[in-house]
Design a protein that fits this description.
With about 60 residues, the chain is an all-alpha fold. Helices cover about 80% and strands about 0% of the residues.
């Protein structure tokens, strides 16, 4: 379990600055189900962050 967490943290640190389009490509080209799940979760997190920024800028709180 700890090794898996370390691997996921390492992947997160590597890929956290990708754009949504880059994450879509990574998701589409992932070789294993774990990587597919990881990139999908990271994509959804980044998408939620973008939506939150838009809502705050438009004062729709």
């Amino acid at each position: 379990m700890i090794e898996n967490k370390r691997a996921l943290d390492s992947m997160y640190q590597t890929y956290k600055d990708l754009t949504l389009i880059e994450l879509e490509d990574a998701f589409s080209n992932a070789e294993t189900q774990d990587k597919i799940d990881f990139f999908l979760k990271l994509y959804n997190l980044k998408l939620a962050e973008h939506q939150q920024k838009i809502i705050k800028e438009d004062f729709i709180l």
